[in-house]
Amino acid sequence: MRYVLLTGGAGFIGSHTCVEVMAAGWTPVVVDNLANSSAAVLDRIQTIAGRRPAFEEADIRDRDALDRVFRKHAIDAVLHFAGLKSVAESVADPRSYYDNNIVGTLTLTEVMQQHGVTRIVFSSSATVYEPTEAMPLVEDARLGPVNPYGRSKWMTEQILRDIAAADRRWQVLLLRYFNPVGAHESGLIGEDPAGTPNNLMPFVAQVAVGRRDQGLRPLVGVVEAAFRRDRGHHADQGGAPGGQDRGQSRVARRGELQLQPGEEDVTLGEPAQEHA
To answer: Between the CA of residue 162 and those of 25, 39, 262, what are the distances in Å?
Structure first.
């Protein structure tokens, strides 16, 4: 039995990826502190996949908690989604972003190293790129994040690059993407953040079900236009059937996590006006 650890696995992208890795034959272990998610998603994953993923409520900055997870489960690889992700919040409180996103990843990789786990896919962001009018972005486009959130992702990428350069046993994939939207075809899981949403799509979805002010309804047309342009469906990040092969080939296709020694960048989608 092959175990894959999903940090932030109860969140939007993490929960969909959890379903996909189960379909591919892996056994997921979800680690999430539930700061912006709910344990109820585990019941929904069970309904979709027919079995319930292992779940450990823990913060990735908690070294002892992570050590217990790795001792309990024979982890083969890590899909790292955990982290704070609001651009506006990062500007107001940059220390929290550097603490959660950078210190958390350092702690995670240290515990991985101690347990001989050296394969990781890092959920980065296309906010690491320098703002530009040239589209689509490609992996070798100029980097230049302009806010603490983007810088925390960029710094984490550099840390993982350096780890892979220092120890060739490490296999690192840096997955960058903009504005993922959508929901599972069952309708059971989708983007439903705790508190006020940071992205446009969940605002629109909450208007549609009557949870937010109706004055936002004109934004629906904006979202439809942006989606047609961006084509950034969440399933492409998680490797769902029919998704972009570049994402699938490394996460779910043929049930293997196919990484080469060292590190590699993969960018999915094109940015809308607001980076996510």
So the answer is: 31, 34, 9
Phi, psi angle pair for 174, to nearest 5°: -100, 110
Write down the domain spans for the chain: 3-181+232-268
User: Is 149 one of the catalytic residues?
Assistant: yes
Instruction: Quote the CA–CA distance of 234 and 151 in Å, as a whole number.
Output: 23
- At 246, list the tokens: 């570049």
User: Which one of the listed residues 97, 98, 149, 177 is annotated catalytic?
Assistant: 149
Q: What would the two tokens of residue 31 be?
A: 């680690």
pTM: 0.76
Beta-carbon contacts of 218 under 8 Å, excluding residues fewer than 6 positions away, are none
Query: Which of 14-28, 44-58, 127-141, 211-225 bottoms out in mean pLDDT, i.e. has the lowest?
Result: 211-225
Instruction: Give pLDDT, residue 121.
Output: 97
Q: Which CATH class is domain 3-181+232-268?
A: alpha beta
